[in-house]
Design brief:
Helix content: 25-40%
Number of domains: 2
Structural class: alpha+beta
CATH topology of the largest domain: Aminopeptidase
CATH architecture of the largest domain: 3-Layer(aba) Sandwich
Strand order of the largest sheet: 8-9-10-11-12-14-13
Number of helices: 7
Strand content: 35-45%
Largest sheet: 7 strands, mixed
Length: about 280
């Protein structure tokens, strides 16, 4: 692979990890790193394409199927490949699977081949209620535990979450959650400042469980929450986002948020510095 080529990450959990398949597909042996994909489970896949059977040496493969359950984890290997090699992998895979973008347990964004015939469950966007408190607390803790997306790495207790929801209800504050059944998979709120002279400004906070990212959930929540904010006394929405969270930065920019400043090396965690972008949107 040429040094000036664009590199992308490809997560493999099946035959693409085999040297023989890599040589036949890419013309080289790939060097990879162990990783895992949460929210998916392996299901059997019978291969009818004789060319694929010839390369892999077997007709019985497996494919990843989306479940959304954090307890479902598929181990595998993440490889750095070129755009040309991604297209070669597309040709190797059969029609029963499709290539989608995911975020691995390590936090690395990557391509992975999943069941093309199984659509994700319906995601409902609505304000949280008292019955959602435990699941909301779990969701915030799950995103916080990844360390690199929220300001907190611990999340909030059930008691803190219940008090937060009580304030949301009492003050009619803009807040929504994303739910699959009774499980909270995403959260978003816009909380105004309570200090005198600053109540026209509110702070945005949001997150999505790793298995449910890159499916438009964050965009749907943000759109709904901003709509609620526009029907309140809030005039300006501010946020802080780590500059290396490129997906979040692009999302905010697409809604019209503009950069107001940068806290250079604003956080240092586990020896790693992160710049913090200060962004805002006038409603």
């Amino acid at each position: 692979m040429a040094a000036d080529e664009v590199h992308e990450c490809l997560f493999a959990y099946g035959t693409l990890q085999l040297e023989s398949v890599q040589m036949a597909t890419f013309g080289r042996r790939l060097a990879g790193t162990r990783d895992a994909l949460a929210g998916f489970a392996l299901v059997p896949l019978t291969i009818d394409d004789p060319a694929v059977v010839a390369v892999s040496g077997k007709a019985q493969h497996t494919m990843a199927r989306f479940t959304g359950r954090q307890s479902d984890v598929i181990p595998g290997t993440v490889f750095s490949v070129s755009e040309h090699e991604i297209r070669s992998a597309d040709r190797y895979e059969v029609a029963a699977v499709k290539r989608v973008a995911v975020v691995l347990q390590s936090g690395v964004p990557a391509w992975v081949y999943v069941d093309a015939r199984h659509e994700p469950a319906h995601v409902e966007i609505r304000p949280a209620c008292e019955a959602d408190a435990a699941s909301l607390s779990d969701a915030v803790k799950a995103v916080a535990a990844e360390k690199w997306y929220l300001a907190t790495i611990d999340g909030f207790s059930l008691e803190q979450t219940r008090a937060y929801l009580q304030r949301i209800r009492d003050d009619s504050l803009p807040q929504v959650t994303a739910l699959v059944g009774s499980e909270v998979v995403g959260f978003c709120d816009i909380i105004p400042d309570t200090a005198q002279g600053f109540a026209h400004v509110a702070r945005l906070g949001m997150g999505v469980r790793s298995a449910w990212r890159r499916q438009g959930i964050g965009r749907r929540m943000l759109n709904a929450c901003l709509s609620l904010a526009r029907n309140s006394s809030i005039e300006k929405v501010e946020l802080e986002v780590f500059s290396d969270n490129l997906g979040a930065v692009r999302l905010y920019e697409s809604f019209g948020f503009s950069l107001e400043g940068v806290k250079v090396r604003g956080r240092k965690l586990e020896g790693r510095y992160q710049d913090i972008k200060l962004m805002a949107l006038w409603l």
